[in-house]
């Protein structure tokens, strides 16, 4: 290679040279780095456009052709569904044969959410960085150990009412009706319409951080008051922060009231938020899938399956190696509450289930039977607060019995006890009868011939 001129070096030859690095999905080929390496190793000088074309050819050699991947997608999804029982897949093709939507919910993830996870979903959409335009839709949950786990993913042409309704309708088909379900997202209007149409019984909560970012120009004092109001457990504490906010910035106060207090505040939400105040879970998953969003559609889904399968193995081994009753984070929080509760004075009341806690000039009423406390932490998080622990210790009860099952080690072990099976080679994929004889074409919408940015400005 060093003895020939740059014009004689085909991009496919250079692609074979760089292809060995893409075996590791964490590696990102950058055109400038490719140019510098070719100069350093072989003395070959290429321009940026040639390096960009080489990079695209390298991706195609390792992960397949972008356009042909759409034609393979029906067989891939059908085979994945057969290999993993309980998996829900679907695909929509336009009348002219072009790809429109696709949906994937692994059976292991669906079972983990329905049986062991808190009834909270975080949804978001992020743009693909590959040859064809598109949007990746994700629905994410968290286990009791605050580890993210996707429930479902989908692909669509654009983030609009039709695409979000299609994705959430299939998510509802996979999960069914869930009591006290909370769906958290940003303020995208298409999400709001789709949630109300598809999940009429669910509560739509807004991400506190997105609302906070819109108030940064109003001053740090305004954002501090808003944070105090959003995270407040008690309604009187919430009202104090909102009254101060009204005096400092009436416009911000009015906007928050127009949005609706039930959508962004913990104290007014009709269902439990379990500490889910932001959409950070979905944003974290989008960041993890950053490189995969450059790949052909089949490779994107396959690498997604591979990562989820690896997470199941690692977390299952880690959970089975512990003999604790509670998850470490919850045990640490309870330990702090126990230390606080030792100094509290517990007094009985006329009601057998109601106890009075005196903390300085404050008085808290604790009801162990209904699992409530005046501070509302016990009621909203389902974890005994310091006042409840003082009563439990006074009555001789077991603290573990008052912790929700989501935070117990047996739930964490059960969540990751399933196995996600890999697929055979592409020549052994099973073609579904639904799309027999129909060629799935790549969408016509394409990006401009330039290097797309990997992250936001």
From TrEMBL:
Domain SWIM-type: 364-396
Domain of life: Eukaryota
Sorted UniProt keywords: Metal-binding, Zinc, Zinc-finger
GO molecular function: zinc ion binding
Protein name per UniProt: SWIM-type domain-containing protein
Lineage of origin: Eukaryota, Viridiplantae, Streptophyta, Embryophyta, Tracheophyta
């Amino acid at each position: 290679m060093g003895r020939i001129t740059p014009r004689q070096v085909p991009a496919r030859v250079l692609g074979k040279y760089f292809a060995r690095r893409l075996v590791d999905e964490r590696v990102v080929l950058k055109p400038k780095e490719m140019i510098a390496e070719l100069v350093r190793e072989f003395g070959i000088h290429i321009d940026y456009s040639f390096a960009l074309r080489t990079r695209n050819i390298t991706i195609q050699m390792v992960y397949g052709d972008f356009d042909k991947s759409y034609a393979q997608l029906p067989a891939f999804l059908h085979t994945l569904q057969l290999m993993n029982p309980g998996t829900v897949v679907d695909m929509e093709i336009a009348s002219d044969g072009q790809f429109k939507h696709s949906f994937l919910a692994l059976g292991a993830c669906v079972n983990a959410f329905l049986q062991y996870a808190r009834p909270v979903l975080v949804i978001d959409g992020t743009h693909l960085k590959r040859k064809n335009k598109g949007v990746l839709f994700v629905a994410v949950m968290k286990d009791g150990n605050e580890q993210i786990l996707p429930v479902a993913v989908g692909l669509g042409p654009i983030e609009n009412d039709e695409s979000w309704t299609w994705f959430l309708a299939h998510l509802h088909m996979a999960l069914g009706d869930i009591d006290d379900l909370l769906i958290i997202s940003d303020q995208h209007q298409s999400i709001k319409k789709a949630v109300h149409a598809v999940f009429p019984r669910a509560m739509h909560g807004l991400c506190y951080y997105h609302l906070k970012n819109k108030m940064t120009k109003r001053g740090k004092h305004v954002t501090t008051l808003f944070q105090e109001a959003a995270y407040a457990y008690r309604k009187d504490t919430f009202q104090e922060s909102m009254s101060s906010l009204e005096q400092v910035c009436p416009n911000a106060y009015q906007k928050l009231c127009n949005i609706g207090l039930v959508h962004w505040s913990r104290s007014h939400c009709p269902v439990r938020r379990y500490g889910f105040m932001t959409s950070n879970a979905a944003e974290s998953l989008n960041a993890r899938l950053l490189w995969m969003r450059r790949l052909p559609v089949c490779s994107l889904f396959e690498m997604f399956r591979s990562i989820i399968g690896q997470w199941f193995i690692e977390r299952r081994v880690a959970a089975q190696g512990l003999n604790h009753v509670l998850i470490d984070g919850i045990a640490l929080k309870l330990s702090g509450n126990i230390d606080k509760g030792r100094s509290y004075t517990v007094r009985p009341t006329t009601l057998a289930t109601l106890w009075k806690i005196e903390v300085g000039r404050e008085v808290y009423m604790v009801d162990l039977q209904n699992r409530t406390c005046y501070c509302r932490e016990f009621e909203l998080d389902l974890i005994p607060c310091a006042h409840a622990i003082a009563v439990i210790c006074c009555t001789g009860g077991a603290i573990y019995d008052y912790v929700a099952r989501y935070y117990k080690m047996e739930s964490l072990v059960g969540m990751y006890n399933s196995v996600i099976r890999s697929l055979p080679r592409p020549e052994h994929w099973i073609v579904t009868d639904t799309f027999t004889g129909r060629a799935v074409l790549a969408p016509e919408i394409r990006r401009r011939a330039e290097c797309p940015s990997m992250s936001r400005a």
